[in-house]
Specification:
Radius of gyration: 13 Å
Structural class: mainly alpha
Keywords: Membrane, Transmembrane, Transmembrane helix
Organism: Blastococcus colisei
Number of strands: 0
Helix content: over 70%
Largest sheet: none
Number of helices: 3
Number of domains: 1
Protein name: DUF4234 domain-containing protein
Shape: elongated
Length: 71
């Protein structure tokens, strides 16, 4: 039961947290919890999870690339 609930909530939480990383630095969020909507109904279409993954992963990679250049 926990795995089912966590599996449904996880895409929303991950996108939200990546967006919060940007917001804490005073930048506009490229992804938000709403980005998780690509995942949930997209399970049935099969392309939605890929769109969600690419958007969230690209935002996270861009965050860390700019972070390492600042250090």
């Amino acid at each position: 039961m926990i795995a089912i609930i966590f599996g449904l909530v996880s895409p929303f939480l991950q996108s939200f947290e990546v967006g919060q990383l940007y917001e804490r630095r005073g930048q506009e969020r490229p992804v938000s919890a709403l980005t998780g909507l690509w995942f949930f109904p997209g399970i049935f279409i099969l392309i939605g999870p890929f769109i969600w993954f690419v958007q969230t992963n690209n935002a996270l990679n861009a965050y860390w690339q700019t972070r390492t250049t600042l250090v």
